[in-house]
Fold these 2 entries.
Entry 1:
Amino acid sequence: MQHEVPKKPKKIEDMAFRFDAFANGKAVYNKTKNRLPAMGWNSWNAFGSGNTEALTKAMADALVELGLDKLGYQYVVLDDGCYKSERIEGKLSNEDVKFPGGFKALSNYIHEKGLLFGMYNDIGTNLCAGAAVGTCGHEEMDAASYLEWGVDFMKVDNCYYLWDNATFSDATNARYVYAPNIKGIRLEGEGMQLSLNAVADGRLTGRGGEKKEDYVTNLGTFDGTGPDATPIGVQSGELEFRIVAPKDGEYKLYVNFASGEEPGCGSWLQVAVGNGEETKLFYDDFLISEKNQEGESLFSESAAITVALKEGENTLRLMNHRRQENTLDSYATLLKALKEQAPQKDILLSICEWGKTQPHNWGYKVGDSWRILNDITFRVGADGDPGVGSWTDGYTPSVTSQYNKAVIMDEFAGLDKGWNDPDMLMVGMNGLTEEMCRTHFAMWCMMNSPLMLGLDLRRVKKGDWIYQIIANKELIALNQDALGIQAKRIYCSLEKENPDTAYIRDTNRVDVLAKPLADGGVALSFINVSDKVQGKQTVTKAQILERLSEKLGENSLFEQAKAYKITDLWNGNSWESTSDLFETESLSAYGNATWKVTPVL
């Protein structure tokens, strides 16, 4: 069955998918809320595209044999490499050699063990490993297949995406992502004739836009795939003009522009008047400029764009938010197909677009979690090889690169939203010591990150050091606490004023995280991010209350208490304290001390 690839993204009719609605808190298509972070096992880190039906069954067996299922590890997820390389009569189908029994039989095997079954796809045309079976344009058919196979969890990637320069997509797809370069605008109507210069008269808002000598460029959404910049704050740039109209009416807008198809200069322009959900969008399409004999784009004036202005002051916005809007719309299309065909089926949607379009701004509308960066490891294993993990890295494949970003993203997560996903756990993988793995696990539990194991579980023996980490009931309880609040960084040795929002990549530091709990207590984790032993670390009750006051509430048991029971969640030791100081004597390199502090009333 031939599938015609569209020439441009579809028109977005519903304002729910627009940038100006990202902050309204409203999910779409009855997305499930109040779901705690997912726990389970994913095939990618250990086996990559080499995963098989036999290996998957072995991992399901191991989850049960080790008793990890009783601790909450429910999902067994097939990642990339499980499908045939092309569709058969338009449908997805299992790779015959690696998955000879088919997905339905494998799903049944997993369900019979009391576990849940997960699969993988992509919103683009191809999967990241290359198979031409992405969901783009096939959402309804694929939803029917996944429901037939009994899928409970969908991890959906972003490679080969048509409307962005994603990992393996055409680089010229940047034309969809950025607005053209703009020199100025001209407005006519109701007796008004007005010409404004983009550099002199325009105002840049948000992030990214740049004023050159005689034009404005880089109007779009910052690419969050890499760790180069903070996730805090508006991630898109706009060019605004203040327009004072003589009366209500329609006006003709002409834009002096030069289009392109590279990062910073694209060919898609949005023109709007107003802000927030009252915004009126008047243009949302390509603007293509002429080129000279050398192929360079020339500045020229657009055809007239009709805009409605009200008498008095108006805010005219030139922008391109389609990087976020298109991606949201693509994930929503799959969610819609699943919900329409099986309204009562509860399928978890794990958004895996690597933070590219800042999904912490919009992911809550459709997803249960959203990846915040590119992969935590680029060295995935083959059969029997657990792969290679690292503590630090200049890009994303390391524990600390993921943690450094996720730790300041607590305000984007919650039971009413979903969870920041710093990717799968690397506990037990080559390259990480036992101490690193303990701290890695504590970080993910405190941050309410999904706990998806990534190692070959046949390497784990009940009671060994790997098991003792991933089976720590008290740490898991923090991650799965009913209150559903991600920990906040209340102290950082490199940042005194704003430890909860400052983006810090220097690992020569100590952090302290505090997490409110449903029983009125607080979890504290002293984290040595550095490779050096650190001495005594102290935080005060006042510091905790200052940073957590809104989350603890007016009648906080923690605030009222005169004494506290403190339990070390790694060794089980407990002691009572009447002090307002919480301190640990020292921290080993890469080490942590994680405590539950319970009010004694």
Entry 2:
Amino acid sequence: MMRSMFSGVAGMKNFQYSIDVVGNNIANVNTVGFKGSRVTFQTALLQTMKAARSPQNNVGGTNPIQIGLGSQLATVDKIMTQGSFENTGNGTDLAIEGDGFFVLSNGSQYYYTRAGALSVDSSGTLIQSSTGLKVQGWSATQDPTTGTRYVDTNRPIGNITISAGMTMPANATTSATIAGNLNSRVGPIPFSMTVTDTTNNVDYNVRFVFSRTSADFVRQTDPFSKSQSYTWDLYDETGRVRAVGFMVLNEFGRVESSGTAYRGTASANNQLTQADFATIPNDGTYYTVVKNDNGNVIFEGNVTIAGGAFTINDPDIISGNRYFAIFGNSSAGDEVVLGGDAAISIPTAGEARFYESDNPSNFSSLQYESPKYVTAVQMYDSLGNPYSVYLEFTRIGQFQGMQNAWLWRAYTASGEPITYVDANGQTIYGTNNYVGGIINFNESGRISGMYGITWDGTTLNVSNTELRTIRFDAAHMGDSRVQPTIDFTAMTQFSGSNSATFTYQNGNALGTLQSFAINENGEIIGTFTNGLTDILGQIALAVFNNPSGLTEIGNSLYVVSANSGLAQIGTAGSGGRGTLIPGALEMSNVDLAEEFTKMIIAQRGFQANARVITTADTILGELVALRR
């Protein structure tokens, strides 16, 4: 009988352990980062009454006869499954999604925890709020030359300090990026109109097309002038040029001046003279452009008329062919006669309206949108002084073999002179300083070339070297100069609104730490008063081959045991480590429904073992009573 009593006592003790574990689980149902435990049992010693016997001859074998002596505690295992998350809104609260533990230190030993309620103490050190133990990781190292911060995760882990007085040093702008669209549909838009020769009852369907020549830049005296000059060609239905002229438009599309070309037929190869024209301008020197009736420019340059005579020499001039010559701002008239009484009046001032000369109700108004677009960015010198830098773009379209060309120049709000530097480090092309750049877009709307331009007052020259660097003097603010290189490659030119804007520049003013936040990789990102962010440090996570083997020491802390394996320390999201959820805490993984079920099982097991003892006691009482 004593065996059954001892077995009952062993069972009662084991179910007491089970109740103890269940009670601890339930007590910690709201403990941050808590991992519940479970109990398993195993048999205790068994008394062998008869050993097993193997089969012999015609007699089968027999099994051993054993009587168990009760049960004993086998294991109390930690269940390291993921707990649910609670949003707290506190930026220093962190939950680990996946495997891993925060590493804490008291200066002499590492501790590990899933409880991520962190804060910063008076010295700026990141700590666990409940214990004051210091969170381990890597503090950012600052380059003393550039001020750039970086985290070297190959170094040993240590305390992370976030000082309220941390600064971001000023940096000069050395590069910038501009992206977005330049509208291809700006400037004067080609248009068609029909005029009638009532004498001969003939309709003329014609089309005005606008382009740029070097003479246009001479006419407007400055490539970047608000008023822009255009050369127009009047094409008939066969695609031949019937007339040529120029028109200067202000930024609102109103005509400031205009003129028509002088028309003549070459009487000899390789030259035009006054004899080839019905009329010519007065004596003087004119910057002249000559076109053939295909609309091609065959000559540009200064022509001097003296004594009513001139000669233009060019190998492309062919005897018998018709040519159109625009002499500077001189005009052959303000009307183009197509035949009979069919004529078009060319506007000379005010609204750009082209109308049939003898029928003013038949007209076409020129659609015009300013070809200029300006965008701006704040750049900095090495001391952090800001400069508002503007980039002005002007569409010139077809020019010197380019189909979709845009001029650009830079200027500052405070008026510092701009120097342009090409890819070879030169600031001049030929004998003249660069005054800006030119960008050409291909038929797909992408950049196909970027060059420098010079202007000597009469000729706009395009270099054969890439140019996208500007420089301006900042010595008056205590620094020598600012020299950023601008990346234009993300720009496009499509028919659509202008949207080109600076998306990046690498300079900044002095900044003081304003706030910080922690991302999913454990990186501590500081926000500074200059509007920029920088990395301040990174929190380390540890994983173990057998996390259930860690020894729990209270305060939701674990230490390494002989069976946990060594801590494998690294960054969140790497090497099997989980990621962090900022502004949240991991709750206990205890399931109350499961714990209540275990409680009932333990209670009934305890009761049953108690009944074994009372039953054995009753039997023993009967045995004692035999003597009576």
